[in-house]
Amino acid sequence: MPKAADTGGKRLISLAPDAWVKWVTQRPEVLAKEILGSEFQWISRETDVLVKAYSTTHGDFLVLNELQLRYTAKMPLRMRAYAALAQERYQLPTYPVLINILPPPATLTVVNSYEQEFLGLHAIQDYRVINLWEVDAEIVFGQPLPSLLPFVPILRGGGEASVVQRALQVLRADAQFNQLESLLAFFASFVLETPLVQQIMRWDMAVLRESPWYQEILTEGKQLGLEQGLEQGVQQGARRQLIRVLQRRFGEVPPSIAVRLESESVEQLESLMDVAIAVNSLAEFMTVLSD
Q1: From CA 100, how far away is CA 215, in angstroms rounded?
Q2: Strand, coil or helix: 41
Q3: Per-residue DSSP letters for 101-135?
Q4: Across-strand partners of 31?
Q5: From CA 44, how far away is CA 63, in angstroms rounded?
Q6: Which of 73, 121, 217, 236 has the fewest C-beta atoms under 10 angstroms from its C-beta?
Q7: What is the mean pLDDT of the chain?
Q8: Which tens digits make up the pLDDT trace of 154-163?
Q9: Does pTM surpass 0.85?
């Protein structure tokens, strides 16, 4: 039984906190001292991470990290509230950073400050914005930034199968990264449709479902009226990839097989992928399918 995933923002940043705070602040002298607990209501989600940092120039301060799956119009107000609450709780200057993972709709503009004027009074909160789709994938390997390894497929230049494979090799080289393979596969599924991605996903699907980003995508799908949400998408993707493997190995696949596969669960489709790779003929695969 796979253990629950720990692939929220706190887990990812804790892989290399010094490298992370240097990157988000763009100051090479900054060091991470401590990843703080979520001791007040607003900063309590798995994707909100507060890091106590130190700079020889500025002393102790807070780096507030908000990892947002998709930017929404509510984010500026949320960043203002988070920054104020963090500063009040810890009595330290706060450097807020919004990391947007996936692009928002074209109708929505990402802004880097909250501004309000009411009855002659002004409220302003600036924060740094990092859009992952604008980040060059090579910096993940060059700096290095292991916290960004699962996001490589959606970074600029990271959508090639060879780059995803490179990220996967780095994850496998370190035991502490073992839960991140499925998260890498999850984001790879946004840009690649290959048997390789499906094979990566099938190993830890139970773990993947515990990811806060998986759950957010699932919720988003339901809100958009997709009754089956992400589960249905994963099932359809698994069936499509299985048929593609059969076609590449044995040529045309009879419609009867495609119809038969429609009733299979994700777990069954994953097992049949192994069969499709191992058998020597389409007839042999059909025999296993009929059992």
Answers
A1: 16
A2: coil
A3: EE---TT----SEEEEEETTEEEEEE-EEEEGGGS
A4: 54
A5: 15
A6: 121
A7: 80
A8: 999 998 888 8
A9: no
